[in-house]
Amino acid sequence: MSTPARRRLMRDFKRLQEDPPTGVSGAPTDNNIMIWNAVIFGPHDTPFEDGTFKLTIEFTEEYPNKPPTVRFVSKVFHPNVYADGGICLDILQNRWSPTYDVSAILTSIQSLLSDPNPNSPANSTAAQLYKENRREYEKRVKACVEQSFID
Amino acid sequence: MESVGNNDANRDELIIQQQREIEKEISDSTPLVSGQLPLTCLREEYNGDEIFTEKIRELSKKYKFIRRTRPDGNCFFRAFAYSYLEYLITNNTAYQEFKILAEASKDKLVQLGFPSFTLEDFHETFMDVIKRVNPTNSEENEKVKNELHTVFNEQGYSDYVVVYLRLITSGKLQEDADFYQNFIEGDFSIEEFRHQEVEPMYKESDHIHIIALCTALGVGVRVEYLDRGEGDQVKAHDFPEGSEPKVYLIYRPGHYDILYPN
Q: Which GO terms fall under biological process for this protein (chain B) (predicted)?
């Protein structure tokens, strides 16, 4: 059955194919349009460069009125990424707008990689290193970039 | 410190899950928009409360019926849309004018910087709803009103109407940012306010939302405030000030419902 959420997800997918933003990609899983797989490539000139980070996006029938649940599957060492891959990002929580689509979600997460917000940490070690020991932070990030090739 | 250790657990998702359970409880027990009920039904809610009982008695001299909306944070927008469309069903000229304004609103929002791709989706549905309540002739009015009631209780349509009105409100705040900035408390910028308090669904409306929406659509709204304030009269406020109301709402702290004047 076509519901507003499913209809909208078909549109999101079409747009992502026709007008793909640089450095991100995503598609519904084979048998369920409510669950997507996505990849974000680490932005240039950041310690995440060259990484290929996999994510899952889970939508409910309330999309786009409510945000989907987005989670990194690849291990990501980042101040705003929880140990289980969950992401602490305002537009996925209290600043969600129904005008955001999958493309906007992925590009926002991509810029979060470049610009962490250490003041609302999901990973306190990463936040602390980011603020106090940038060299060690970058080393830990690069380790997860290498890991992302194997995953 | 313990709090640092707990930090790494994914609290956001737990909070969201809990919120969703509460919302589900509300949505299972109340329709998005109820049928017309006698205003006196409010009395039961305030049984034994003198101030409210007196105010309800005063209010019932002016209004006969109330129509409840689901208390989900979208009540102002849903009540406004329902009530205004219900008025338009009885006024073909105003209906035709509103249809033109609604049709043109999309381009305006795109000009203001809203993403046209996602906007289109909401606008199409909004126009669908407007077309479904086209007043054909006065004999058919009741039928069209039933259609309105059906549409507004279909979550998909009903919520998209709310989203679109939120976007119109947000657009108006942006367009006249210098003016609306005065209404915002604290250090919020208009930009932050729009993204945090206007565009997200389920965020409650304040005066500033009402003024911006009414001004953008050129629709007068009268709100009757039923609260513990002084006196035995319910205070009314018209938005925008001095306008002739087409939509009548009752506000009780945290919630809007629709009123029907005598």
A: protein K48-linked deubiquitination; proteolysis
Residue B37: in which H helix or E strand, if any?
Answer: strand B33-38
Structure token digits, residue B128? 């669908």
Q: Give A7's contacts in chain B (Cβ within 8 Å).
A: 121
How far is Cα A48 from Cα A80, in angstroms, rounded to an integer? 14
CA torsion, ordered A118, A122, A125, A126, to nearest 10 deg: -50
The band of B2, judged by pLDDT with boundaries at 50, 70 and 90, is very low
| CA-wise closest residue to B84 among B93, B75, B95 | B95
> How many angstroms from the chain centroid is the CA of residue B191?
21
Tell me what ipTM this predicted complex has.
0.85
Are B33 and B68 in contact by the 8 Å Cβ rule? The answer is yes
Q: What is the assigned CATH class of domain B34-261?
A: mainly alpha
Nearest CA in chain A to B24: A62
Fold for the domain defined by A2-146 = Ubiquitin Conjugating Enzyme (3.10.110)
Q: Is A88 a known active-site residue? A: yes
B108's CB contacts (< 8 A; 6+ apart) are: B171
Rounded alpha-carbon distances, angstroms, from residue B99 to A98, B104, B151: 23, 9, 17
Where are the domains positioned within chain B?
34-261
- pLDDT tens, B69-110? 999 999 999 999 999 999 999 999 999 999 999 999 999 999
Please give the model's pTM, rounded to 2 decimal places: 0.89
